[in-house]
Amino acid sequence: MYVFSIVMIVASNILYHIAQKSTPDKINPFVSLTVTYLVAAALSVVALLFYKTDKGVLESLQSLNWTAFLLGISILGLEFGFLAAYRAGWNISVGSLVANIALAIALIPVGIMIYKEAFEVNKIFGAVLCIAGLILINR
């Protein structure tokens, strides 16, 4: 599952960016996003039928907290942000790279302060290289 999860993320992100970049400019972005979420909701319901846990659906619903709502808000921001970026002219190869490197750098203090993650010298060096890469790629 360790490797599979990353492979799934990468494969899904490839499809995601192809779909975002290929969404017609004349379509209302929120119509497109509504259809996107309806498809995702339908697939989630189907997956729910096959993904068995110790808790039932009602018990799981009762266990929900603020994170599900914040995730919904953040996903809408992500979706609209990438759609807007591609409509503004970002190339698929550069836009996602810049966004993901900036995200990785922004998550460093989050990991350190909130989740008490270690950040050794080699990671600092890697972050510096990422920042240098952002500077170079945007020239």
Model description:
- With 139 residues, the protein is mainly α.
- Helix 5 packs antiparallel against helix 6.
- It is globular and about 50 Å long.
What keyword list fits this structure?
single chain; 139 residues; 6 helices; globular
Give the SSE layout.
Elements: H1 2-22, H2 29-50, H3 57-63, H4 66-87, H5 92-113, H6 121-137
Helix pairs in contact: 5-6
**SSE pattern:** HHHHHH
The pLDDT mean sits at 95
Cα(first) to Cα(last) distance is 39 Å
Residue share in helices?
over 70%
Total DSSP helices: 6
Biggest sheet descriptor: none
Strand content: under 5%
For this structure, the quaternary state is single chain
Give start-end ranges of low-pLDDT stretches.
Answer: none
Please state the overall shape, judged from the principal axes of the Cα atoms. Answer: globular
**Structural class computed from helices and strand pairing:** mainly alpha
Q: How many strand units?
A: 0
Please give the radius of gyration in angstroms.
18 Å
